[in-house]
Amino acid sequence: MARVLVIVPFPMDADNLEMRRAQLRSVRLGPGMDFDFRPVRIAPVNYVSQQDSVLSDVGILEAGIRAQAEGYDAVCIDTVSDGGMAPLRSVLDIPVIGAGRHAMLTALMLGDRFSILAMWDRWRHLYTKTLAELGLGAKCASLRSADLQPDNQSLMAGKEEAFFPALHAAALRCVEEDGADVIVLGSTTMHQAHAYLAERLPVPVINPGPLTYRLAEIAIRQKLTHSRASFPRPAAPADAALAAMGVAATRL
């Protein structure tokens, strides 16, 4: 049995964690794959500033730093920001899959130009950072937002009638006005809208969270992981310090 740890980028209770786990129903995986979902202990309220990005990196690193020692075969990061991905790759030998960059790269397997459909314009900096790192600015037709206040806990539950049509309208503009031939959902918190959008849009719609599960399975079965040339090991382990920070965060 291959074990995959999915790191959820916010602290949350069991009911809200189950809404994240529901992403597994969106992808058909092969036999012998087991997924555990773990919320972080250290996190920002939301991802709207550079300070938030630092907290995200620390929290996700703290949550996953012992994944290999705990017997996991891969790690998936349940945020399109890819928070903590690079730090975790520096300390783990097992594959670490970030939802953002892998969704964008997969979009280019399906079309020539993609648009990122976000709920909230204040997330724009997360996408421009990844696009710059990958050198994909010319391949991004647009970044459009439906101007909806996100909820990282209950997601879209109870708001589907208002949120789904608004997202569809913004996505149509990406296709008809901006020339996108693939849509990338800008957050794993949007996964509940994927089926609605995929049925109504004339182009493929990438659901980043479930995509990471499939990519983790492929990496495990093909015995692939990140390059040490790109992600060198740290000079000194920080497991104890990070664990202490995690304990301190739960007391706040």
TrEMBL record:
Keyword NADP: no
Highest taxon of source: Bacteria
GO function term, MF aspect, one: amino-acid racemase activity
UniProt keyword annotation of RNA-binding present: no
Keywords: Plasmid
Similarity comment: Belongs to the HyuE racemase family.
Name of the protein: Hydantoin racemase
Gene that encodes it: hyuE
